[in-house]
Write a structure and sequence with these properties.
Layout (H helix, E strand, L loop, with lengths): L2 E3 L4 E3 L6 H9 L2 H20 L4 H10 L9 H16 L11 H13 L5 H26 L6 E5 L9 E5 L5 E7 L11 H12 L7 E4 L3 H7 L6 E3 L3 H16 L21 E7 L2 H11 L5 H14 L2 E2 L7 E5 L5 E2 L2 E6 L2 H11 L3 H8 L2 E5 L3 H37 L1
Parallel strand pairs: 5-6, 6-7, 8-12
Antiparallel strand pairs: 1-2, 3-4, 4-5, 8-9, 10-12, 10-13, 11-12
């Protein structure tokens, strides 16, 4: 769509960049990575809301041998993130969630010993509840339009009092801190979650300014306990119980995956995530972002315009094969358990080469933390992993056989 430029007093086509914007971009090359971040967030919103990535999730489900009925992309990814969080935090040393089979063995043990050791089952369900709510909070923050200028992250190593922190993406200044609580039982002033918050405030680990994030009933419970903290509510007791049952069922069925594949994809993906989609960083997107920076259009107008444009040029699943993309590090660029990157068309690349010099735009994105590489067909990635898994399993089996032979020899030697 053509747009009228007040500076040039003329109309510009979407596939071109206004001469005035070219000058600004050359003087501020860092704006290119800012435009890329803005574009990815806007594009992710469209990919999720249009469910364009459902096909990718279905294909992954099929390839990793899942016999579960198909579930929506968001839930599919959310559960993966919960299992990953459990593996990285409370069970990092025990390794109960290091593989789906480990999780299956662990929950079988928990169920078998439930009568003798009821606390073990209670502890597991408590962790499923708590870490699920943490993932819910992070996903909610990343899905809001405020994620364009805010960055939220969960704290590690069981940080006392505070579970998540939100920063200004551009200045790094802390905006807010959040304590995340949940319970599969009705919230009361004596509930463990609210009691823990009160205790943390008393000990100085938290303050009355920190946000309390919890299920329905948290506001009333906090008020009854005399807390004046701001409260955000999401989910309810019933949805939490359903989540726990679904997670336990996946553990029992050997489907507690911490990533969409059994092993990291290595050079074919980033941080073990399958590349699920790539958004086009077009001349139009760059122009729209800089017009927003110039206060010519509102943030909402820019977000809407870029999201609409990016989905038109989005590449999903098998169509990604052989495309040069840039995948950003950190939380931006990851949604539904898949990596989301950007690609730059030849026409846009030519424009950027004219502004920065040949190939310089790639160096600019690289300096901003973007990883550049060729993507591969999803089927190819999974088949390679399956082949590697087979080789590894065979080597492990051979090692066990050799170990058994050695043990037999040692026994004979002792005789």
């Amino acid at each position: 769509m053509d747009w009228y430029c007040e500076k040039c007093k003329s109309f510009h086509r979407d596939e071109e960049i206004c001469p005035q914007i070219r000058i600004q971009l050359k003087n501020h090359p860092e704006w290119l990575s800012d435009a890329a971040n803005f574009t990815i967030v806007a594009g992710e919103e469209c990919l999720v809301t249009t469910q364009a990535l459902d096909k990718v999730a279905q294909e992954i489900n099929a390839m990793i041998g899942s016999n579960l009925s198909y579930e929506g992309t968001k839930q599919f990814a959310r559960d993966i993130q919960v299992f990953r969080r459990l593996d990285e935090e409370p069970f990092s040393k025990a390794g109960y969630f290091s593989t789906p089979n480990s999780a299956k063995s662990y929950i079988e043990y928990v169920y078998e010993t439930a009568k003798e050791k009821p606390r073990t089952l209670i502890s597991l369900e408590s962790k499923l509840t708590g870490y699920s709510e943490e993932v819910e909070w992070l996903r909610q923050k990343q899905g809001q339009i405020s994620s364009l200028w805010e960055k939220s992250e969960l704290l590690s190593n069981n940080a006392p009092g505070i579970d998540g922190v939100t920063y200004n993406r551009f200045t790094g200044k802390q905006i807010s801190r959040t304590t995340i609580k949940a319970s599969s039982n009705p919230m009361t002033k004596n509930s463990t979650g609210i009691a823990d918050v009160k205790k943390a405030i008393d000990k100085g680990y938290a303050t009355s300014k920190d946000i309390i994030y919890g299920p329905e009933g948290t506001k009333i419970a906090a008020a009854d306990a005399g807390l004046i903290n701001p409260v955000e509510e999401k989910n309810n007791v019933e949805s939490i119980r359903k989540s726990n049952k679904r997670l336990e069922r996946k553990m029992t069925e050997g489907q507690a995956y911490t990533k969409p594949t059994a092993m990291q994809v290595g050079k074919h993906a980033f941080h073990g995530a399958i590349v699920g989609g790539a958004i086009s960083l077009s001349a139009s997107a760059i122009s729209t972002y800089i017009r927003y920076r110039n206060d010519e259009i509102t943030r909402e107008e820019a977000f809407k315009k870029i999201s609409e444009d990016s989905i038109k040029g989005a590449l999903v699943g098998g169509t990604l094969g052989g495309v040069t993309i840039f995948i950003p590090g950190g939380t931006i660029g990851f949604v539904t358990g898949n990596a989301i990157g950007i690609y730059i068309s030849s026409s846009t690349a030519n424009i950027l080469d004219e502004i920065f010099g040949k190939g310089a735009f790639a160096a600019t994105l690289d300096s901003a933390g973007y990883v550049c590489g060729m993507t591969y067909n999803l089927d190819y990635c999974i088949r390679e992993i399956e082949k590697n898994n087979y080789v590894i399993d065979r080597n492990i089996e051979e090692t066990r056989n050799v170990q058994n032979d050695i043990e037999k020899l040692l026994v004979d030697f002792d005789i």
